[in-house]
Amino acid sequence: MMQPSMQEPSDLDESPPPLPPRPKKLPPVGSISGIGLPTRATTAVSVTDFQTPAQGNAIRNSNTGSESIAPANELDESMSVRSTVVTVEPAMDAESLLGEVLEKDTLAWRTLGPMPAEEDIEIFPSDAEFDDNFDREFDELDDMTSDGLNEQAVVDQWKSKLKQYFILSRAGKPVWSRHGNDQLVTSYIGVILTLISFYEDVSDSLRGFTSGSTRFVVLTKGQLYLVATSSLGESDQQLRGQLEALYMQILSTLTLPVMERMFKVRASTDLRRPLQGTEKLLSALADGFTRGSPSTLLNALECLKMRKSHRQLINNAFLKTKSDQLLYGLIVAGGRLVSVVRPRKHSLHPGDLHLIFNMLYEAGGIKAGEGENWIPLCLPGFNNTGYVYMYVSFLSLDPAAEQARQRLAPMENLEEVAVILISATKESFFDMQQMKTDLVEHMSKNGSYNILKNCVKRRRLSCSDIVPGSPLKHFLYKSKTNVQFAMPSFDPLFADEISKRRLLTLYSQLQASIHSRPAPPKVHHTSSSTYTALAWNTQLFELYAIAPANTSRIELSQAANKVVQYIRREEERVFIIGGAVF
Amino acid sequence: MADASQGSAPKPSSSVKLVLLGEAAVGKSSLVMRFVNNDFQENKEPTIGAAFLTQKCPLPTRTIKFEIWDTAGQERFASLAPMYYRNASAALVVYDITKPSSLTKAQHWVAELQRQASPGIVIALVGNKLDLATPSTSPEGADEAAEDENDDDEADARKVPTKTAKAYADEDGLLFFETSAKTGENVAEVFTAIANAIPETQLKGTRGSAAARAQEESRVNLSAGRDTMGAKEGCAC
């Protein structure tokens, strides 16, 4: 039925798309029940686990555990500790057992009655306490009254936050924190500092610890300590990635040498003053992480889906109108990349782009209808020692909305299209402005302006459009070579903030599991009473997919294969390969 | 967005470069928003870098097209300011009437402009957030009305008496207004006054037409532009 390519990830590794057909030498496990999944090699444990959801609602809560399995052919490579452990179990028994049970189960499920309507499917059971906390996560704390009578209430509010971020200097000066004013935060910062210095005194560094259900992670960068606390179950590595992004935002404002000089002159420098006005950028980044950001989780970018030839038209317009002063040129639609023009030797760092997108689309400092902007900033991934200058202009794709959008709130900026032209010369604003005018003119002439307009209007494809007939409800696909990811719309199941957060929490657990050290599994299955999910890691891509609990593993992996096929087919539409180079 | 003149009638039109300077959070962007879009936003996010906007201002005999540089007020952007004011024919130096330190900062800006900007630059000192002062101070009309000082009034957030700022402005030959970007009070007046204060001679030859734009661009290129501009200013004075 389909390519069981999941069995041979290492085979895919060498060959860039389009991929060659699967080598014949592989063991023929391609029967329906064996689709791509190393099911035959799984264990008795996993089988039991797997059957449970199929046996009805009785013991739903008992099988929330997850386990990982490794593709059979990797046994020889002794790839992962986990896979070895798991496959110690008698494989043969499991195999036959699994094969039979599977057929029955899926049949049984089909006959159980009509499938619930899309809206009725509940992937994540609601958890009133979490929902409540998450609802209030982004609320500002009450002001402490002068008599201090509400102190306890404010502290409680503060403590109920699921995520906290603190940045402080080695000298113990607060630099920034997401929640709470100095008065509130100072004593906690003192505690953190004491803990950190305790370890430093013995030439060790404190990287993280757990208190209750909250994980604390510390990142040390020069004279700065960055601390994240999370009750969302993110891994240390993920939290550290978020702290890295906050650190990059600080560098983006100050540059590394400037910051180092400040601390050299005075170790007790108060960084809040030079960072004044960027608090919102940091908070917007942090809140993005708390809401759940596939982009940060995967450290990759998303592109606006578009025909290759259409993107080529835009790229051509870029190249034709390129100013001599131009370093990078980008067109971005609501945080999705449309086109890039760049020098041959340089590529853009996803972290840098994330900072730019955050500034444009989340922080609300720059808005459509408020003119053109000229922004000095440091792109730390590109060069953390100096500034580049960024010209930003939002395109008025819809003249009728032109008037109305003056009142746009930051979040409504989301689908706006921005032309971003980055130059190394601070006085080239008018060159960039001219280039933008030329670019828009050129795009109107070659038709790509209208094409872009239509692509932006089109909604993200839903999962059922991409893999019709499959039980899949959502997926993330990251192309490692392109450092880009693709995903379907969060609608309808994960459209609201809480469901989206739950989905991203699941994704982050999956992501952590296939990146766990020392020997990460290639494929990881997990299931609960309401969903079943898969993470699949090859050298070419990472894929995360989720389906309702009644989906068999086989169906899930079939669907996963379909996603991979879809991406392979549409690769040059969903991703930008190379971009325009000069 | 920055589209040039869309053939606005037979009246001659000319471009005026204007820069806004002043401490962070005094309301520079809000003033521009009110002038350009007749709009106001509470709790606006701080400007990052600078924003470039254009707006026409019709006068009886001609149309002035303002090319406005709205700069960020944070200290770290101060070093970039010369780039924006060097070729400007007008500057709006803004302070917050509820914050005395912002007037001090404004005075620094005025001094810097007088020292380093084009000699003929028209400078307007603008005290913003008039809506926070008790209405009795100056319900309308900026300059004179505020003689009666409400400083002792507890409810009044005003900390900079009109008199003080006005005296300073007069001394330095600046236009002076108190405005509220929130209510729109006096905002258009500031820009009209500036437009009127720009000597006609200085406007000759600068047209918003596409052809002239190219010329302007080279003028804006600061390294090259300084001398040209200086010459121009010379004849303007």
From TrEMBL, chain A:
> What is this protein's record name?
Vacuolar fusion protein MON1
InterPro entries, alphabetized: FUZ/MON1/HPS1_longin_1, FUZ/MON1/HPS1_longin_2, FUZ/MON1/HPS1_longin_3, Mon1
Function, as annotated, reads:
Required for multiple vacuole delivery pathways including the cytoplasm to vacuole transport (Cvt), autophagy, pexophagy and endocytosis.
- Judging by the UniProt lineage, the source's domain of life is Eukaryota
Q: Do you know which Pfam families this protein is assigned to?
A: Fuz_longin_1, Fuz_longin_2, Fuz_longin_3
An individual GO BP term: protein targeting to vacuole
- Membrane topology, record value: Peripheral membrane protein
Give the family this protein belongs to, as stated in its UniProt record.
Belongs to the MON1/SAND family.
Keywords tagged on the record: Autophagy, Endosome, Membrane, Protein transport, Transport, Vacuole
What is the organism lineage in this UniProt record? Eukaryota, Fungi, Dikarya, Ascomycota, Pezizomycotina
- Residue ranges occupied by any FUZ/MON1/HPS1 third Longin domain in the UniProt entry: 472-571
Q: Where is this region: Disordered?
A: 1-36
Q: Where in the cell is it found?
A: Endosome, Multivesicular body membrane; Prevacuolar compartment membrane; Vacuole membrane
**What residues does the FUZ/MON1/HPS1 first Longin domain cover?**
163-285
From TrEMBL, chain B:
Q: Which GO terms describe its molecular function?
A: GTP binding; GTPase activity
InterPro entries registered for this protein in UniProt: P-loop_NTPase, Small_GTP-bd, Small_GTPase
Keyword S-adenosyl-L-methionine present in the record's keywords: the answer is no
CDD domains linked: Rab5_related
Q: Where is the composition biased (Acidic residues)?
A: 141-155
Q: Where is this region: Disordered?
A: 134-160
What are the record keywords, sorted?
Nucleotide-binding
Q: What residues form the membrane-spanning segments? A: none
Q: Which PANTHER family match?
A: PTHR47978
Q: What is this protein called?
A: Rab5-like GTPase
The protein's organism comes out as Microthyrium microscopicum
Lineage, opening ranks: Eukaryota, Fungi, Dikarya, Ascomycota, Pezizomycotina
